[in-house]
Structure formats: structure tokens, C-alpha cells
Amino acid sequence: MKVRWNGLALLVVTGLVVLSCRYVDIPVALFFDGLLRWSVHWRHYAAHIPDALTGAVFVGTALSWWGYYVARRHGRSHAAGFLQLVGICLPASLLAKAGLKFVFSRTNTHAWLAHRASYGFHWFQGGGLYNAFPSGHMVVFSAVGTALWMYYGRFRPLYLGALGALALALVATDYHFVSDVLAGGYVGVIVALASRRFLAQPGRDRH
């Protein structure tokens, strides 16, 4: 049953990404580009947002494992399980997004809007202007959000709202196309589910 649902989810997300690439990405990018042109300062800021994701992942991973050992020492098994999952999700999501970006080599939105690169996928080119798909921010934060969803379900509307706001910000600043964000969200969920399955393997400490 899980295999069937996983296959269905992959099919649905793939369909949405394909439809977005064909009919949504360009109009939405042009729409927000037009809005950004109204303010020179905001447009400059949006085009030069620093990418601190890698540093944040390293710091978050270190803090998660530190918190895990502290929680475990104090007998807080639920918190320890969550922090252990996050400690694996963060570096795993960073590796996943780096590998997929290299494979797909999608033109980033700013480069396309500046007419410095052609729209689309440039398979296995990697780096430079071809680093948009999937959105690394969505991969990382969706993985953490999924971990929160599994361990602290009472605040699920808050997690969805935060991820939705992040997705909107990435698209509204022309940092990503819509399809980049859709794919990133899906990959993040898969990373979290795979990490939890890894931790649940026989012989591992489940606390």
C-alpha cells in the first residue's frame, strides 16, 4: 500500500511540475518581475539575497545532535527522537538538493529574466546559472517541517503556513520558478520519510 501511495504521489508531483514548466513558470516569473520593477531598491535587494543555506544547515545539524545527546541524557525520548531525525534530515537534504541540481541543471530565474541563459533544463551542466531545480530552501525546510509534522502534529497548520510563506517568498522575489518550489517541497518530504525509515531499521536505538 505504501509503495502504491508513494508512486501515486510521485506521479502527481511530476505532473504538476511538468504543467508548471509549460504553463505557469514563465507567466508568474514575469508577473513578479513587473512588480519588482516598481521599486529599484526592492528589485536590487531581491536580486542579491545572500544564500546562507549551507551555513544554516551545518549549524542546525550541530545544534540538533547536541540537543539530541542532552535530551537523551535527561530521558526525554520524544525530543531526542525528533532531534536525531532533524540531525539526519538536514545534511541529507543538503546532499539531495546538490545532487539533483547537478542532474537537472535548471536555469535560475534571475539569469533567465536577464536573458543571459536559455530557459529550461541543461542536463548535467551544474553550477553557475544552472542551479535552480529543485529549490534547496524548500528541500531543507520541507524536510524539517515533515519531521515537525511527525513529532509535534498539534502545530501542523503552522508548519504548512510557514512553508507556504517561504514558497511564496522564493517565487515573489524571482529566486525560483514555481516548479522549482514544488519539486523542492516534495524532495524534502521524501528525505524526511527516508531518514525516519533509516532510523527505524532493526538494531538502531529507538529510545
Overall pLDDT = 88
> Which secondary-structure class do the elements indicate?
mainly alpha
Radius of gyration: 18 Å
The main pleated sheet reads as: none
> What is the percentage of strand-forming residues?
under 5%
State the helical fraction: over 70%
Order of helices and strands: HHHHHHHH
Shape from CA axes? globular
Q: Can you count the helices? A: 8
What is the number of beta strands? 0
The poorly predicted ranges are none
Give the termini distance in whole angstroms: 28 Å
List the helices and strands and how they pair.
Blueprint: H1 2-36, H2 40-47, H3 53-73, H4 77-104, H5 109-113, H6 136-151, H7 156-172, H8 178-199
Helix pairs in contact: 1-8, 3-4, 4-6, 4-8, 6-7, 6-8
What would your notes on this structure say?
There is one protein chain. The protein is an all-alpha fold and 207 residues long. The chain is 73% helix and 0% strand. It starts with a helix and ends in an 8-residue tail after the last helix. The model has no long low-confidence stretch (mean pLDDT 88).
Defining traits:
mainly alpha; 207 residues; 8 helices
Summarize this structure briefly.
This protein has 207 residues and is mostly helical. It contains eight helices and no strands.
